[in-house]
């Protein structure tokens, strides 16, 4: 969504490099991570808003009629392509803007890219909160999507590049932690505004608070030393490195960054370089992880939690309160990743969570298939059991595929292909988020409870992938990643030839 290894082409603050966790690094990381809070708020707010009667009457009157029709099918009452477009359009814009953000990160720096993200967020908030027609609403979501594309491209890289390696895991997962906090805040806001005549405007307008914080805060953060050196400001890069490390003796780390930068400068076409055989393991793993993250089914819960709980028989207020409950679980479970990612390792958390999510999804699907028909309400005892299972599912995701889906791609690319590689990862995430958001309500209508078994199938596949094809990257610096990780993996080692003439052939 995130100790993480450096993504600056060096060990960056490893055990043999002096570095402190300075107030400068903490403040800059927290400010940047507010991009995650903005992203999370966008995720969480849409589901609650699309279940509000005033919002539906204003923009989707036919859905409002279906929602309150006594004999309407439980699984199909919210099935509408334009209603889904309200949610999914944000991610379509994010896919396109991620490419521009990737180039902006490399040419103009991480700091400016974060500043642009905050401006896009503010424009989107104004348009959606003041919308008087569907077109204005969708355009607002597109601007928010641009903010997501720029923010998700720049923030994880920014935090990874300024943080000492032994603290990088916790600091990077702060991005995902604030995503979960944003989702929780959105659920709470939706709960208290649900009965207000203009509650949906208040909910959408509430996004202005994190957007303003990010906009003002982005003026205060420093540029990363890697970006400064990469863009021809070596002296400023050295001074910034000394400032954020809290020590004067940074020559070794500085030399490593300069060396990585020189190597990167030789790569004129980073996207073309990504297609080389030796770049394939990192590219495939990062993109597949992002695809799998969406096919856990988590965004079904996060986007449409109030809608989903209403489908299961909870009333409007109860469904929003249930969404708040899952949001709390999401935040608390993400703390496990903050403190456990470098203790337990990436693979262990991903494999354990796959088993946990499989159990939750399969039992939930079984209960709905057995007891929730087209027009009845799910018996109360089963409704609460489903709520527990969804919280059980969310907790597993929150300490594994959520933060690690962002963390692993941020640590496996060398500097010469970093922005290009991370763009591919972010784009893959946004593409599949768009697909899931656009298709879910229609799929729920046609597959009914079978939608949960659909996600179960994907969870089995991703668990097998994590066990068989994902190498453990815990405790390995970037400059040693190929030698210690990829070249020793039973499958990926075949992409690295000892013969330099054959190394990068397809």
TrEMBL record:
Q: How does it sit in the membrane?
A: Multi-pass membrane protein
Q: Which GO terms describe its cellular component?
A: membrane
Localization recorded for this chain is: Membrane
Question: Where would you say this protein principally sits, based on its record?
Answer: membrane
**Source organism superkingdom:** Eukaryota
Q: Which Gene3D superfamilies match?
A: MFS general substrate transporter like domains (1.20.1250.20)
Q: Which UniProt keywords apply?
A: Membrane, Sugar transport, Symport, Transmembrane, Transmembrane helix, Transport
Domain Major facilitator superfamily (MFS) profile residue range list: 28-474
A molecular function GO annotation: symporter activity
TM region(s), chain numbering: 21-41, 82-102, 114-136, 142-159, 171-194, 200-222, 283-307, 319-341, 348-372, 384-408, 420-441, 447-470
Which InterPro entries would you find in this protein's record?
MFS_dom, MFS_STP/MST-like_plant, MFS_sugar_transport-like, MFS_trans_sf, STP/PLT_plant, Sugar/inositol_transpt, Sugar_transporter_CS
Tell me its family.
Belongs to the major facilitator superfamily. Sugar transporter (TC 2.A.1.1) family. Belongs to the major facilitator superfamily. Phosphate:H(+) symporter (TC 2.A.1.9) family.
Annotated protein name in UniProt: Major facilitator superfamily (MFS) profile domain-containing protein
This protein's species is: Lactuca virosa
